[in-house]
Predict the structure.
Amino acid sequence: MTLYEELTRRGLIAQVTDEKEISEMINNGKATFYIGFDPTADSLHVGHFMALCLMKRLQMAGNKPIVLIGGGTAMIGDPSGKTDMRKMMTPETIQHNVDCFKKQMSRFIDFSDDKAILVNNGDWLLNLNYVDVLREVGACFSVNKMLTFECYKQRMERGLTFLEFNYMIMQSYDFYMLFQKYGCNMQFGGDDQWANMLGGTELIRKKLGKDAHAMTITLLTNSEGKKMGKTEKGAVWLDPAKTSPYDFFQYWRNVGDADVIKCLKLLTFLPIEQIEEMERTMEGAELNKAKEILAYELTKLIHGQEEADKCLESAKSIFGGGGNAADMPSTELTADDLTDGKIGILDVLVKTKIAPSRSEARRLVQQGGISVNDEKVTDPNALLTIDGEAVVKKGKKIFHKVIIK
């Protein structure tokens, strides 16, 4: 089975500019490809996971990745898939985020012996002369055609700034520069990037008379069509300081029944034949086993086998032995958080971020979804006396240790 056939079988491929040419290139390790990451935060998150996995698969097959960090495009903001304009960031914030991305990428992609390179588009975009861009690049783009793309159409009613309108031109210029500087002949990205990617192939054709290619991958969505990677606490980050390995493990352990096989196909490196066999036999206990495998494999991929083993052991201890695992997420409280040695249940839920607000905490308690040390709490005005530590449980799957210092 060729690489392209495997990507198709896993459901990864969404759109391609030339299926025959692209399959030949990646199957034979002839692609020098890039994927762009705008540094809008100080960590990569689950939304980047698909691109990271694709990059790793292609590199394993002998193709050369270029990781493009958008230090320049982040100054503008991509309107694709957005209903509102992104918040403007300072150059200092962008540089900090770029540095964080570099560190995370280096742990995931093999940059040794020139097997991959990492570049920042700020190196060329921030020094461009505006008049030169208008003459040399702007002349290659039709405003009428740009306005037909969904990424712009969906913003027209809410208001599309001229700043954002330039994003497609900037991303296209990236491909144009990478083609010339590094021989980059292919761009990969999420399916919502299709219009921007086509802009790049067109610019290369018009300016250089050469062919370049683009392929989009399936967006990571659940069975309801919503993007995955969000929890009550916010985004699921790849940085262990922002999302602990245990919380990361639990996110995948708790994916919907309808999504587990899709996630195994898209995100893990388990043989596709093994996943398809699981799909044929999966029900009841086998379904829970598949979720456990998914969580373990992805945690191992991001945080390493040692952390994955700890998370698996911790999860089994929690769910099978009353919730007394050392690696359970925990929150430390001090005497300042207590009144006469006690603390309200609603305060506990908010401080541990089990609930995002007191109103949500109240609802959880009233509906019988909260237990403390295996005793259900149904009174939202209940005051707790915590002797050293206590385990708070939300539903059947969320455990959190509260420690009094």
In short: Residues 33 and 186 are 5 Å apart (CA to CA).
